[in-house]
Each structure stands twice: as C-alpha cells, then as structure tokens.
C-alpha cells in the first residue's frame, strides 16, 4: 500500500463509491460517483476522523491499515452519524475494541439505535479539545449541517477543518485529493451545487450559522467528507456555500428556470412561445421536461435562478404528476421567494393551477401571472405567452 497525505501526519483514508446509483436512495450519482472521505492522524494517539458506508468496509479497513494497525487506533471521531460516514463502525469496533468513539451527546442514542454500540464512547461538547500528542483537536457543533448531532473537528496545527458534509460535493475523486490538482475545478463546483441543492439546501440557516460560528477560526484547509479537499482556496467553497444559503432569502440571481410537462403538446406550444418571449429580452431560460429529467438536476437551477416558470396541464383534476413531484421537492428543500408564472392546458374541469398554488404557497413564490387555457392555445393565447415571457424576464432582471 501507499499513503495519501493531506499534511505531514494526516492521511486521506477515504473510499470512492462508483457503483451506488442513487445517493440516499434518491439522488442519481451513477455518472459522477461520490467519495466518502475519512482521515487518519498519526500522532501519539492515533486518530481517525469520519468513516465510510458499510458496503465499502473491506476497502476502508485496508486504507486504515496502510497508516496504522487497526489494533492501534486510539480515537474514532464521528462528526456525523449518517451511515455514509458511520456504516463501517460496527466492524471497526470489533476489530479495534479499545478505540474510543468521540461524538456529541445527540449522537449517543443514534450509535445505539443504528449499531447497538453503547460503550467506549466519549461525549464531546461544543468547544471541547482533545490532546492527541502534538496538537489539541477542537470540536464545534454545527447542528443540522446535516443532522441534529453534527459537529466539525479542527486541527490547529495544520489549520485544517474536518467539516464533514458541510462544503462537500458529489463526484468521486480521480486520484488527486486537492482543489489545486484538478484542471476542471468547475466540474466539482457544479457537483457541489447539485449536492448542496439536493442534500443541504433545507438547512440554509444552520449552514449560515455554522459559517458565522467558524468565522474566527484560522482555516488553511477544508477537508470535507465528500469531494475535494480545499487546500488552495478554502475560502472559495465557503463563499459558494454562503451564496447558495443566501438564495433562500434573496430568491436567487437573474435567470429563469422553465419547468414544463405536456401530454399532447398543447402546453408545450405555449412553453415555446414563453421561451421565445424570454429569449427576445436576451435571457435564455434553463428548460426542463419534468417527466424526463431527474429532480436532482432541476433543484440547482431552481435554487440559483430568481424566476420560475411552471407550465403543466391538468391531470385527473390536479397537476401533471411529475410537476407535483418537483414542486414538492422544491418545498422540501426550502426553495423560496421566487418570481413565478403558471400556464397550462386543460380539457374540462381545470385543477392544475389550484394544485400549483397549493404546493408553492408556503414558499412565498410571487406569481406575476397565471393562466389556464382549454385544449390548444389560440393565436391570441400564443401572443399572450410570448408577452408573458418578456414580462417575467424583465421582472427578474
Ligand atoms: C389521463 C388524463 C387525465 C386528464 N384529466 C383531466 C381532468 O381531470 N380535468 C381536465 O380539465 N382535463 C383533464 N385532462 C385533459 C388535459 O388536461 C388536456 O388534454 C390538456 O389539453 C393536455 O395538455 P397537453 O396537451 O399539454 O398535455 C386529462 C387528460 C389526460 C390524458
Ligand atoms: Fe449527511
Ligand atoms: Fe454525507
């Protein structure tokens, strides 16, 4: 084996997952993969920070063993109890029975509930430190980034923040660990946004609180539990997360997400007219066919763009089902304060608009116009759609 260093005595012992198709059983990662980053610190007390998903147990144990024997682990720090970072703990506990687990008070019950582990646990409180020989690691609680028990760990010697899910992203690592090693950093930034929109967006306020709380900590390296280690520009990923968290309040930047679904093409005709109207102002909407694109890819656009267009017909006295799915996800992820438009075709009863408003009412979306039309759009309707496109483009500019 060989070592993968992130500092003189800190090693990356994570694993790449390129076979799970849906992260959390929900979000497609089959084309990107994901890494479960874990770190080993070789000091007077050998320390492991965060683990990996259970099905990678063998790989993970080999990674640790390359740094120190499993029997010589002193501390296992669990920043977060979600099984993508703790799944191997049951096996590790059997192989390293003397290693003490460090976690927050709130994680203790979870350790018992998920893994039946009730002893050999040391509870750490916010601000506590742990002397491991040449340095004192400190612990900082960041509740709800991503679960209530979550904390981060800081090494003052290397000024490294082990931030767990915070500042993480999708994308398996391709050999390199660091932001400065990748020529296509935009890929990881884009996958970090998708990860944020899918996993973290619900917790925008806890993210902002965590960033505020850590503002005075001198950080030279951010080592999250997914994705790149940010050594060249740790501030870059913090700025991105801050910006994304702020969108919950501002509603986003200039831009329009166009969500549409259509069974027989009538709503689609209107969608094209609205797009043409938007484009005539110089703005190009990000267009998604809600029946064909996974919500994972629509959420980042919804988060970032101030404008949203919902174009979908009535289906069984309600909204075209895939449109309900994305709007429900938007509600779940707190995609708030948008400038919106609704249009859609119906046959006899209507119902899609009512459902759209019901789903997005808690999100404070402001509809500048809504209209339903029977059957195919008339020439007049099409002109109205074009003008509506211009109107929303101007409203978000
Ligand atoms: C399975 C199905 C269920 C529908 N349910 C309703 C309904 O409950 N109320 C209604 O007004 N129209 C209903 N319609 C009619 C559509 O809303 C109408 O055909 C509309 O023009 C479809 O728009 P599209 O061409 O964009 O798909 C239904 C159509 C289908 C195929
Ligand atoms: Fe998590
Ligand atoms: Fe995670």
**Based on CA inertia axes, which overall geometry fits?**
elongated
Largest sheet: number of strands, sense, barrel closure: 7 strands, mixed
Which structural class best describes the helix and strand composition? Answer: alpha/beta
Kindly state the mean pLDDT as a whole number? 97
Q: Structurally, how many domains make up the residues?
A: 2
Features:
elongated; binds flavin mononucleotide; 12 helices; five-stranded mixed beta sheet; seven-stranded mixed beta sheet; 397 residues; 2 domains; Rossmann fold; binds fe (ii) ion
Structure summary:
With 397 residues, the protein is of the alpha/beta class. It has 12 helices and 23 strands.
Structural write-up:
It is a single chain. This protein is an alpha/beta fold. The protein folds into 2 domains: 242 residues, Ribonuclease Z/Hydroxyacylglutathione hydrolase-like (Metallo-beta-lactamase, Chain A); 136 residues, Flavodoxin domain (Rossmann fold). Helices cover 35% and strands 24% of the residues. The strands form 6 sheets. Strands 1-2-7-8-9-10-11 form a 7-stranded mixed β-sheet. Strands 12-13-14-15-16 form a 5-stranded mixed β-sheet, with no helix packed on it. A hairpin with a 4-residue loop joins β14 and β15. α8 crosses α12. The radius of gyration is 24 Å and the shape is elongated. It starts with a strand and ends with a helix. One fe (ii) ion binds next to α2.
């Amino acid at each position: 084996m060989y070592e993968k260093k992130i500092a003189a005595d800190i090693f990356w012992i994570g694993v790449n997952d390129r076979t799970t198709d849906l992260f959390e059983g929900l979000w497609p990662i089959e084309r990107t993969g994901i890494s479960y980053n874990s770190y080993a610190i070789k000091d007077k007390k050998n320390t492991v920070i965060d683990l990996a998903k259970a099905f990678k147990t063998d790989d993970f144990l080999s990674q640790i063993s390359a740094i120190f024997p499993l029997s010589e682990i002193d501390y296992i720090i669990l920043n977060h109890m979600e099984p993508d970072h703790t799944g191997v703990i049951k096996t590790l506990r059997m192989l390293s029975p003397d290693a003490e687990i460090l976690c927050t008070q709130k994680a203790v019950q979870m350790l018992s509930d998920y893994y039946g582990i009730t002893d050999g646990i040391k509870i750490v409180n916010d601000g506590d430190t742990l002397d491991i020989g040449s340095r004192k690691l400190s612990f900082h609680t960041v509740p709800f980034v991503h679960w209530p028990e979550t904390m981060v760990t800081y090494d003052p010697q290397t000024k490294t923040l082990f931030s767990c899910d915070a500042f993480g992203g999708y994308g398996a690592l391709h050999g390199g660990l660091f932001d400065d090693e990748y020529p296509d950093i935009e890929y990881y930034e884009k996958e970090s946004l998708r990860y944020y929109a899918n996993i973290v967006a619900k917790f925008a306020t806890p993210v902002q609180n965590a960033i505020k709380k850590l503002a005075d900590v001198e950080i030279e390296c951010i080592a999250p539990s997914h994705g790149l280690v940010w050594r060249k520009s740790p501030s870059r990923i913090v700025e991105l997360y801050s910006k994304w968290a702020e969108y919950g309040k501002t509603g986003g930047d200039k831009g329009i997400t166009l969500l549409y679904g259509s069974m027989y093409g009538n709503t689609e005709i209107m969608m094209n007219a609205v797009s043409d109207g938007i484009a005539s102002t110089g703005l190009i909407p990000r267009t998604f066919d809600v029946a064909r694109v996974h919500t994972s890819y629509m959420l980042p656009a919804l988060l970032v763009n101030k404008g949203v267009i919902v174009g979908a017909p009535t289906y069984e006295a309600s909204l075209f089902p895939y449109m309900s799915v994305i709007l429900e996800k938007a509600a779940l992820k707190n995609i708030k304060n948008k400038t919106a438009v609704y249009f859609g075709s119906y046959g006899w009863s209507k119902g899609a608009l009512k459902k759209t408003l019901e789903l997005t009412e808690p999100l404070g979306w402001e509809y500048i116009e809504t209209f339903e039309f029977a059957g195919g759009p008339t020439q007049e309707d099409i002109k109205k759609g074009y003008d509506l496109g211009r109107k929303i483009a101007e409203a978000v500019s």
